[in-house]
Amino acid sequence: MFWQKDIETINRRNLESLQLKRLQQTVSRAYKNIPFYTDKFLEIHMKPKDIISLRDIRKLPFTSREDLRANYPFGLLAVDKEQVVRLHTSSGTTGKPKAIFFSKKDINQAAELIARCLVMTGTTKGDVLQNMMTYGLFTGALVMHYGAEKVGVLVIPAGPGNTQRQIALMQDFKSTALHITPSYALYLASVMHNEGLDPRRDLSLRRAYLGSEPYSEETRSKIENYFGIDVYNSYGLSEMNGPGVAFECIEKNGMHLWEDNFILEIIDPETGETVPEGEKGELVLTTLCREAMPILRYRTRDIVTIMPGKCRCGRTHRRISRIIGRSDDMIIIRGVNIFPQQIEQVLMGIKAVAQNYQIVLEAYDQMTVRVEISKDLFDGRVEHLVSLRNEITEKLRSEILVRPKVELLEPGTLPVSEGKSTRVIDKRTL
Ligand code: AMP
Ligand code: ZN
Predict the structure, then answer these.
(1) Disulfide engineering: 280 pairs with which of 221, 233, 305, 327, CB 3.0-4.6 Å?
(2) How many helices and strands, by DSSP H and E, does the chain display?
(3) From atom 9 of ligand 1, which residue's Cα is the shortest distance away?
């Protein structure tokens, strides 16, 4: 099951020489057409011709999201405005957004990458994809939409929310695949459960693509078991087209990152130095095929590792692990570094835990984990609740090494998110 077999299984030597050629072209174009890069190169006395091997990428300056904001709106555009056919902005939480431009060629290329991802996981003509990501300025839904259409899939542009209508659409049009955030998938499961629906009996789903926010293996299993489907991890960011940067194949063991389109580096976020292969660090990406907006060495802030060895599926593009955390998401409690995903992983591994939780940080490094638990546990037997709370507290303590306060809540107490969810409320800085 390949969309572009030659390029997906290209041998490493050919892949690397293709990367070098494309890197040289990208660097020349950026230097010539984007004053921001011209200045940066002059500062470090560098010329595009200094890129002789792939290793020379390390001489290039990094691009940060602050650079994207500072150059808003048109500063990083490498082509005439007339060549731009699409604008997206990235979900910035503070200050100015980041503008991302696509030429016709860029739209087509982003769709090609999605087509590879879908076909690699078995989705093909005849499938019905219900796209529950947000349509609009956000890249998530539209980029997937175009890629799925390219494959010949029937796409239902449902967008997120309106859960009753989602269920009706899935039933009426026999959707076989979903594109959805993990938090909304868990919510959808809880609504169906409460209405006495059984996805295995009442729906035609076969697989779901989950991305746009971090989640754990435990959450994947929970969703797979509930819906009776295969769940594939989908990674991307607006600055690099949106979805389709890295995607799991049917082995479900790391996400192939399309290295003919992006050069990947893993660096130590503190020093900026490359870490030895296999160690975790911040993912840095350089676009190789983007026309309207090439970006050099973009610091994603996402912490990952490169998976060792070859993949059984035959693809040669290296795989990155699940996103371990974002370098700016890390919580420091009493001197201990904690990623919210560690907490999620523990919670989703406990059967009595429902779909929603929240981490609240307060003065003096107090951490409270507020967890919704199954309705049936509120049966009036206090001892049940006490022992569950103790179990959750202990499991969290052994994972994150600090003992949080655990609060058990009835399902539906915490706010539900349809897009990216906010799990951590840090009152220490308010
Ligand atoms: P945006 O710029 O709004 O497209 O958001 C991109 C960010 O979402 C990435 O940098 C990641 O932090 C996060 N993200 C996207 N996909 C995943 C995924 N599969 N797992 C974890 N985090 C993800
Ligand atoms: Zn594979």
Answers:
(1) 305
(2) 12, 20
(3) 237
Q: What's the whole-number mean pLDDT along residues 52-67?
A: 96
**What is the distance between the alpha carbons of residues 77 and 36, in angstroms, rounded to a whole number?**
10
Amino acid at 343: I
**Residue 124's Cα: distance from chain center in Å?**
22
Instruction: Of 5, 15, 2, give the one whose Cα is nearest residue 318.
Output: 15
For residue 234, the ligand 1 atom closest to its alpha carbon is 19
Distance 258 CA to ligand 2 centre (A): 11
User: Which residue, 248, 188, 187, is CA-closest to 217?
Assistant: 248
**Of 19-28, 96-105, 149-158, 313-322, where does mean pLDDT reach its minimum?**
96-105
Q: Which two tokens stand for residue 378?
A: 């509120």
At how many degrees (to 10) do helices 217-227 and 340-348 cross?
A: 40
In tens, the pLDDT along 101-127 reads: 999 999 999 999 999 999 999 999 999
- In sign, the C-alpha dihedral spanning 50, 52, 53, 54 is positive
Sheet strand arrangement including 281-287: 262-267, 281-287, 298-304, 325-326
- The percentage of the chain sitting over the pLDDT mark of 70, rounded to a whole number, equals 98
CA neighbor of 206 nearest in space, from 142, 153, 139: 153
Rounded Cα–Cα distance for residues 259 and 25 (Å):
16
Amino acid at 101: F
Nearest CA to ligand 1 atom 5: 237
Cis upstream peptide for 73 (omega within 30°) = yes
Q: Write out pLDDT tens, residues 226-255.
A: 999 999 999 999 999 999 999 999 999 999
Residue-level pLDDT at 388: 93
Task: Give the ligand 1 atom nearest the CA of 323.
Answer: 21
CA 312–ligand 2 middle distance (angstroms)? 6
